[in-house]
Fold these 2 entries.
Entry 1:
Amino acid sequence: MNKKPSESPVARKGSFLRTVRAVAWSLIGLRKGSEYQQDVEKLNPLHIIGVGLFAVFLLVLGLIGLVNWIV
C-alpha cells in the first residue's frame, strides 16, 4: 500500500485563502466540478473542516444578530 506524497493530508499545500474560498462557495452551493477536483487534490481536509465549522458558527451568530435587530 504505497501512498503518493500528494495523497497525505500533511503534504498538501493549499493556502488558507483558497480553503476559505472553497468553503464559502460550498456553503452557497456553487462549485464547478474542475475546481472541486483541484480542491480535493490540494487542500487539507482538516483545514476544510475547521474553516467550515467556523463559517457555520459565524452564520449562526449573524442570523441571531439579524433576528435580534429586527425584533
Note: The helical segments are 16-28, 33-42, 45-70.
Entry 2:
Amino acid sequence: MLDVSVIEDAEAAAVSLDPIRARLLAELAAGPASAAMLAARVDLPRQKVNYHLRALERHGLVELAGERRKGNVTERLMRATAASYVISPTALGAVQPDPARFRDQLSARWLLAVAARLVRDVGSLITGADRAGRRLATYALDGEVRFASAAQRAAFVEELTRGVSALVAKYHDPDAEGGRPHRVVVALHPSVRPGPREARTTEELPESGTGEDGSDA
C-alpha cells in the first residue's frame, strides 16, 4: 500500500469524493475487508457495498487483497491502494489553477495556484516514476517561524529572497549538456490553528502588505 496516491482522472476524483465511497476507502485503508464485513461497519446492505466497491476498483482506488471461503461462498477481501489520496488539479481540466495567468507574490490566491501546480507536477512525476519503476528525486523543507512584527516578517522575506536568488544564480547552468531543469518553490503563510474557522490562523499582522486581490501576503 502506498502512503499517498495521486488521483488525476476526473471520474476517479468524483468516485473518491462520494461520502459512502470515501468511508469505504477509509475502512479499507485500515486493513483488508470483505463486502459483508464493510456492510456491518457502515450499516448498508452487502449488495450496495459491493456496488460501491466495484466502482472504486474500476478506478484503481481499491484492489483485491485475497479470497477466503465462508461456507459455500468465496469472499473477496479488498484493500485500499493507498493510505491517503490527493486529487490533482489535472482532474479539473481547463479550470485548474494556473499561476502563469498572473503573478503577484503578495497574493494568497497566487500562492494557492502555485501550490496547486506543485501538486499537479509532482503527482505527474510520481505516476511516471512508478510506471518506469524508478525513484523520483525530490526535496522539501517544512518549518515554522514566529515573527514579533510585520516588519520582521518583511525583513525575513527580503533576506530569504536574496539568499534563494543567489543560490539559483550560482547553480543554474542553462547550457549544461544532459542537465535537467528543477523548479524551486518557497512559500510563507500564517500557520493554521485547529478549531473554529475564525480562530484558525496565527495572530493577525494588520500592518502587513496585501496582494492585488486584497488577501494577506
Note: The chain has a mean pLDDT of 89.
